[in-house]
Design a protein that fits this description.
With 258 residues, this protein is mainly beta. 5% of the residues lie in helices and 44% in strands. The chain has a six-stranded antiparallel β-sheet. It is elongated, with a radius of gyration of 24 Å. It starts with 10 loop residues before the first strand and ends in a 5-residue tail after the last strand.
């Protein structure tokens, strides 16, 4: 990331304005999975009057774990994918989705920053940063996973909301555990673990958090393509004896982040 020695201007909400350009976003707030349009006004910057402006973006400024945008190219020769769209004199836009632009999962993305530049890097705006990604908002359901999109190196949490169960056995189920199975990109089994004790987060909510290679041994060179999970437990039969019951097997396909 290129930096220049200029007075840092303040960021207020979705707008960054000063004598060194102005930035707005649509929508004004967004998660790493939302499509966002940046509008950059280069008035008052070295790019004022330019016909072509290229974005140079970077993630997680100041917090570690950052990456340059996949569109950046080389500082002296920006990729054409980084070319912003000119909509009026000194006004340029760029549309992106955080997970795609940076090749990182929602769990990895905290914030991002960017600047505008000439294709050859001879001129540039100041850095505009940091802009935070909002956390993902979930809709409660009987079974769910967080984050909704992840790759096989991410930590995942699977949830069972017992109060939302529609099956009477699941409504009554106790001693709740979870089974996990993992598959390679071809769909072949890699490993599984059964009967994992869940965390009881409340009287009606059970969960288990995991990273795949902490649950099963993944052979060298193998990438996981998906996993499945199934909550299990016991219910009392007519004689008061414990009987095993289980929910559906739910498959989750891993997302490939560039």
């Amino acid at each position: 990331m290129k930096k220049i020695l200029l007075l840092i201007v303040c960021c207020f909400g979705a707008m960054w304005a000063s004598g060194q350009g102005k930035v707005t976003f649509s929508p004004a707030t967004f998660t790493a999975e939302d499509e966002v349009t940046i509008t950059l006004d280069v008035t008052g910057t070295p790019l004022e009057g330019a016909n072509d402006v290229y974005i140079w973006a970077f993630s997680n400024d100041g917090v570690g774990g950052g990456k340059d945008a996949s569109t950046n190219g080389q500082w002296g020769n920006s990729s054409e994918d980084a070319k912003m769209t000119k909509t009026a004199a000194n006004i340029f836009t760029f549309k992106f989705t955080g997970t795609t632009l940076f090749g990182q999962s929602p769990a990895e993305l905290i914030n991002f920053g960017f600047l505008g530049k000439a294709k050859d890097g001879s001129k540039q705006t100041p850095d505009y940063k940091p802009f935070k990604f909002d956390p993902l908002v979930f809709t409660a359901s009987q079974f769910r996973i967080f984050p909704a999109k992840l790759d096989y190196t991410d930590m995942a949490t699977v949830y069972f909301h017992q109060s939302l169960a529609t099956d009477i056995n699941l409504q009554r189920m106790t001693n709740i555990k979870v089974n996990l199975s993992f598959y390679n990109e071809a769909g072949d089994p890699v490993g599984s673990k059964q009967g994992i004790t869940t965390a009881k987060e409340s009287a009606i909510l059970f969960s288990y958090s995991f990273i795949p290679d902490r649950v099963v041994t993944i052979p060298a060179g193998i990438k996981l393509g998906k996993f499945s999970y199934q909550f299990t437990g016991t219910v009392k039969d007519a004689n008061g004896l414990d009987v095993t019951t289980s929910g559906p097997v739910i498959e989750v396909v891993y997302t490939v982040f560039n």
